[in-house]
Amino acid sequence: MSWDQVWIDINIATMSPNISEPYGAIRDAALAVKDGKIAWIGKRCDLPEFDVLATPIYKGKNGWLTPGLIDAHTHLVFAGNRANEFELRLQGASYEEIARNGGGIISTVNACREADEAELFELGRQRLNALAKEGVTTVEIKSGYGLDIETELKILRVARELGKHHHVDVKTTFLGAHAIPPEYKNDSDAYVDLVINEMLPQVIAENLADAVDVFCENIAFSLAQTERVLTAAKNAGLDIKLHAEQLSNLGGSEMAAKLGAKSVDHIEYLDEDGVKALSESGTCATLLPGAFYFLRETQLPPIELLRQYKVPMVVASDYNPGSSPLCSSLLMLNMACTLMRLTPEEALAGMTRNAAKALGIEAEVGVLETGMTADFCLWNISTPAELSYTYGVGSCIEVVKNGRLVHQ
Ligand code: NIG
Ligand code: FE
Question: Where does Fe(3+) bind?
């Protein structure tokens, strides 16, 4: 056998559904990499003979390998911050009131319109570094803090550039319909026209987005407006997804599922009909515990129904300055368990296998199996549940991306 690298003295949480052990675990395992892919994975005692003198061998000190983490929902390219709104909320103002009074998303829009690409890139790079340190190897980044053609394109270009210059892979999502900009305050339909007829074609022409998202909510876009944007995106061949049922139930998830959305995200107010629709269409349910925590929500997403209907649950950071200023994926694993009562195994599946599905990249990443991309992390832990049990101890000790060891 001729391999580029071999890992031994490891246990592996493959997260493969084809291995019946919890976490798809293989204890006393070995893994071999060739040309950026997993060439062999299994029990150490079954490892075929290979040229030990010509092959770099990495010893995992009996820690655990997991798939590289995938943060499938972030807004990490933005300028400014909203600490002032945090203070207002602690004095009693609600997230919705602040948004209705011209703060919220619009205040970040103002900061992004003023920032140049270099500034946004540097801010984004620092945030990507923070996620990468915790074992994230793929991230989704949304626009949505521009709300005019120039700034929406600027944010998406920066997101694409980050993907080119950082080892973390970046999937981009056009979220032009994130909020109604002040210029269209009294004519939101005209803004939706702009998103569909002018922004979307330019985003497509420059190949700036892999998917399209909308914020379907009383303080943002109606069900009918959301359907128009998602239909246009789908017709253009892009993946679709939705911020839905975060503060109320407008039926967005059900509609998006019927259009074949990859995921619906937040979904605190989703009901059983909605869950059924997700299960029928294979749409993922993305749980965002950071926003749930930071907005001090009390309405939990319908976790038990999602389990019952076997809807794949995704866990993501939703990193953004307003509702989840928490740039940590591992913290989300902990919160998914403590606040939303996922099992540690469900939480990890939400940041690996199911997150890959939500981004449409499940054929390449998200589980450790032969033929998959060699994106994985070595953790200094004695059981995979430790990933969501403890936080802040820096247990990610090595990251391999596309078969290359990344020095962090
Ligand atoms: O995912 N819900 C809408 N959008 C973001 C929040 C954006 C903001 O407040 O800046 C979210 O929570
Ligand atoms: Fe979000």
Answer: 73, 75, 243, 318
Same fold, 5-68+367-407 and 69-359: no
pLDDT at 100: 87
The Å distance, Cα 242 to ligand 1 centre, comes to 12
- Give binding residues for 4-imidazolone-5-propanoate as ranges: 82, 145, 178, 246, 323
Q: Considering the domain delimited by 69-359, tell me its CATH architecture.
A: Alpha-Beta Barrel (3.20)
Q: Which residues of 197-228 are buried (b: 16+ CB within 10 A; e: fewer)?
A: eebbeebbeeebbbbbbbbbbebbbbeebbbb
Predicted complex ipTM: 0.97
Bridge partners (DSSP) of residue 30 are 42
**Distance from residue 134's CA to the centre of ligand 2 (Å):** 20
Which CATH superfamily includes the segment(s) 5-68+367-407? Urease, subunit C, domain 1 (2.30.40.10)
Q: What is the pTM of this model?
A: 0.98
List the residue whose alpha carbon is closest to atom 3 of ligand 1.
215
User: At residue 146, does pLDDT exceed 80?
Assistant: yes
